[in-house]
User: Which sequence fits this backbone?
């Protein structure tokens, strides 16, 4: 500890951790911005916006209102994330005011990148309305993870240039271990945000049910199951697509810097898809809640996402018990690259996700419609 403090190593590690938290906040804010923008498509296809779509001025005002919500909401989320992080760290470090101001700026520094992703969703809605949801999420993932992957090449510099520290880290795993830990952290973030996408896709079921948009297919049980399964299929394939894009983009960004594009893309593609079973468990919880507790399905689905984020990101820092850590399915997913892959956890996570989805659809087949 004394050596780290003298050489500035401890400061670098803390700053790297705090920067990682702000990256996570940026990803969540970007996801919120995309979802807020893509409400345009949901309202258009559901006929909810017909009164304002008769003329061009009405369309612009309607679209601008959603974009404004996306921008202000993303900014608010980042401001809250920065201020809360600064408050928590400042209370421990003895400088609440300084840390709140510093982290508030660090959080809002993620806003331009988050708005670029939301802007891609706006462009997709205007140019490719039928594919706007998939294009918005996939393009945002490709942009973010390519940039983050390229940054992996210099991650070791965060630990300082001390020859003593370099020797010690080389003995413990060296540059390769540091880079792998960073890349594995990116794939964990990709899995968490992909799980959020899966939940949002599943909860379209509840939105369409309460709005009466699915009445023609809900008159019989077979129609209900087909309709529900189609949304679950979209959630599953979309989640897999996002993790594929995240892995490939990270590998491309890092591979271009490291001089091995093909090898890194293949390696990171596998690392991204290794998070898929855990992400589908979270989406499966939303499906089960939709069938069994429809009135609380939105709260249950997003609570599952929130718990997964808190446990996966802060669990060890907060020194939570092992049984608490095990609640998050991401605890059981392999940390790749650099970690080991065991088949049983992946199989069990897949079985649990399938069971939750089946239970939710079976319950939906029998319950009353809102």
Assistant:
């Amino acid at each position: 500890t004394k050596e780290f403090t003298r050489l500035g190593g401890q400061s670098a590690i803390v700053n790297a951790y705090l920067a990682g938290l702000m990256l996570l906040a940026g990803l969540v804010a970007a996801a919120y911005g995309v979802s807020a923008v893509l409400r345009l498509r949901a309202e258009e296809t559901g006929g909810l916006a017909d009164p304002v779509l008769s003329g061009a001025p009405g369309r612009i005002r309607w679209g601008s209102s959603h974009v404004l919500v996306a921008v202000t909401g993303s900014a608010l989320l980042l401001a809250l994330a920065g201020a809360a992080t600064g408050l928590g760290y400042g209370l421990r470090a003895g400088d609440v005011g300084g840390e709140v101001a510093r982290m508030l700026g660090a959080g809002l520094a993620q806003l331009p990148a988050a708005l670029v992703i939301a802007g891609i969703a706006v462009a997709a809605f205007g140019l490719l309305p039928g594919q706007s949801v998939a294009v918005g999420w996939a393009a945002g993932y490709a942009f973010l993870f390519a940039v983050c992957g390229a940054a992996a090449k210099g991650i070791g510099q965060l630990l300082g240039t001390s020859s003593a520290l370099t020797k010690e880290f080389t003995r413990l795993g060296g540059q390769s271990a540091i880079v792998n830990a960073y890349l594995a952290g990116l794939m964990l973030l990709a899995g968490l945000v992909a799980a959020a996408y899966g939940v949002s896709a599943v909860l379209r079921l509840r939105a369409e049910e309460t709005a009466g948009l699915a009445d023609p297919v809900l008159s019989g049980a077979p129609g209900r199951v087909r309709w529900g399964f189609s949304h679950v299929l979209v959630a599953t394939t979309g989640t897999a697509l996002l993790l594929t894009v995240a892995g490939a983009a990270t590998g491309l960004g890092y591979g271009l810097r490291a001089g091995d594009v093909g090898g890194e893309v293949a390696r990171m593609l596998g690392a991204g898809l290794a998070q898929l079973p855990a992400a589908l468990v979270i989406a499966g919880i939303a499906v089960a809640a939709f069938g069994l507790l429809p009135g609380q399905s939105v709260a249950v689905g997003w609570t599952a996402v929130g718990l997964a984020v808190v446990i996966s990101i802060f669990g060890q820092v907060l020194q939570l018990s092992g049984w608490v850590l095990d609640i998050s399915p991401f605890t059981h997913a392999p940390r790749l690259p650099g970690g080991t892959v065991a088949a049983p956890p992946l199989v069990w996570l897949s079985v649990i996700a399938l069971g939750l989805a089946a239970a939710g659809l079976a319950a939906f087949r029998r319950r009353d419609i809102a």
